[in-house]
């Protein structure tokens, strides 16, 4: 493995982010105004930060203008990721039923081309208590369910595709202020990349984890090697005296190329801040290649590729 490199005063470790296969779908939610589309998107993708405890990972991919949606109204594109197609279908039905059907003026459509379908409006139509009607447009079936503000329109199904979860960057900084600035810059750059979401709050996670725990019931626990308060207490630390805070950005994408593009965008944005901005080092989380088959080597994402 090559040695760490230094760019703009920041050390980039000779390591890789390890990611794993997931199942994913994209749905498009529209509403009478951008505000209500946003509210539906936020509710449907809430409590979806990690499959460790949430069942799925999800986020708002981007906001859509009326000329980008099936019904000519403002909308949002949402991405959902789970460890199996069955779990994804379960999460999708619950979240669309409780958070989008219920939200004023919304409609929901598939946002992907044909593939293995799972129910979108197929089962939610029964909320109409027999008053629901189907409509075929362009070879696709849509359900019109009467609700108190008019009707809820939902496409019959949405495709599930293979995807990649767990791309990541670890940003090691001088202090909390510098770590937040670097993480926020990285997330802002990643959000301009299509087909990805960063599922944690604001796209950033401070509780990075390692596999396993001293407590048998837990499958994951705090990544103690990166915890500043444990320097001098744990057997092995990754931190040097000039690092006071670490933030992680986790990326899920529809393909390995999408995750790599987002990691590269985030890496470029963080490195542009440089050591002058308080960023000291960039690393990535992996488990020695035992977690998943997708390995994103940081040096290959740098300008010009691996040195």
From TrEMBL:
InterPro entries in alphabetical order? ForMFR_H4MPT_ForTrfase, ForMFR_H4MPT_ForTrfase_C, ForMFR_H4MPT_ForTrfase_fd-like, ForMFR_H4MPT_ForTrfase_N
One Pfam family from the record: FTR
Q: Which residue numbers delimit the Formylmethanofuran: tetrahydromethanopterin formyltransferase Ftr N-terminal domain?
A: 7-147
Provide the reaction this enzyme catalyses: N-formylmethanofuran + 5,6,7,8-tetrahydromethanopterin + H(+) = N(5)-formyl-5,6,7,8-tetrahydromethanopterin + methanofuran
| Known pathway | One-carbon metabolism; formaldehyde degradation; formate from formaldehyde (H(4)MPT route): step 4/5
**Ranges for domain Formylmethanofuran: tetrahydromethanopterin formyltransferase Ftr C-terminal:** 150-301
Q: Where in the cell is it found?
A: Cytoplasm
Entry GO CC: cytoplasm
Going by the UniProt record, its keywords in alphabetical order are: Acyltransferase, Cytoplasm, One-carbon metabolism, Transferase
Top-level class of the enzyme under EC nomenclature = transferase
GO MF term set: formylmethanofuran-tetrahydromethanopterin N-formyltransferase activity
Alphabetical GO biological process terms: formaldehyde catabolic process; one-carbon metabolic process
SUPFAM superfamilies reported for this sequence: Formylmethanofuran:tetrahydromethanopterin formyltransferase (SSF55112)
Q: What is its EC number?
A: 2.3.1.101
Q: How does it assemble?
A: Homotetramer.
State the NCBIfam families in the record: one_C_fhcD, PRK02114.1
Q: Which HAMAP family has this protein been placed in?
A: FTR (MF_00579)
Q: Any idea what job this protein has?
A: Catalyzes the transfer of a formyl group from 5-formyl tetrahydromethanopterin (5-formyl-H(4)MPT) to methanofuran (MFR) to produce formylmethanofuran (formyl-MFR) and tetrahydromethanopterin (H(4)MPT).
| Family per similarity comment | Belongs to the FTR family.
Q: What is this protein called?
A: Formylmethanofuran--tetrahydromethanopterin formyltransferase
């Amino acid at each position: 493995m090559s040695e760490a490199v230094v760019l703009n005063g920041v050390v980039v470790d000779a390591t890789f982010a390890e990611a794993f296969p997931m199942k994913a779908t994209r749905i498009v939610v529209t509403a009478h105004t951008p505000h209500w589309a946003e509210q539906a998107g936020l509710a449907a993708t809430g409590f979806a930060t990690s499959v460790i405890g949430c069942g799925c990972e999800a986020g708002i991919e981007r906001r859509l203008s009326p000329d980008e949606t099936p019904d000519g109204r403002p909308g949002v594109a949402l991405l959902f990721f789970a460890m199996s197609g069955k779990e994804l279908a379960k999460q999708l039905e619950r979240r669309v039923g409780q958070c989008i059907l219920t939200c004023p003026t919304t409609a929901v459509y598939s946002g992907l081309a044909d593939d293995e379908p799972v129910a979108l409006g197929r089962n939610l139509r029964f909320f109409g208590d027999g008053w629901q009607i189907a409509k075929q447009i362009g070879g696709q079936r849509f359900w019109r369910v009467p609700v108190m503000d008019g009707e809820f329109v939902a496409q019959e199904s949405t495709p599930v595709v293979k995807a990649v979860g767990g791309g990541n960057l670890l940003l090691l900084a001088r202090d909390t202020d510098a770590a937040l600035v670097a993480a926020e810059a990285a997330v802002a750059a990643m959000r301009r990349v299509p087909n990805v979401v960063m599922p944690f709050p604001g796209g950033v996670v401070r509780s990075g984890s390692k596999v396993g725990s001293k407590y048998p019931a837990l499958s994951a626990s705090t990544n103690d090697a990166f915890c500043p308060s444990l320097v001098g207490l744990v057997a092995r630390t990754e931190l040097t005296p000039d690092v006071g805070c670490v933030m992680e950005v986790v990326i899920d994408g529809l393909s390995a190329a999408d995750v790599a593009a987002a990691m590269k965008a985030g890496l470029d944005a963080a490195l542009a801040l440089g050591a002058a901005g308080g960023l000291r080092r960039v690393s990535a989380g992996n488990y020695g290649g035992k977690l998943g088959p997708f390995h994103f080597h940081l040096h290959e994402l740098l300008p010009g590729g691996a040195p």
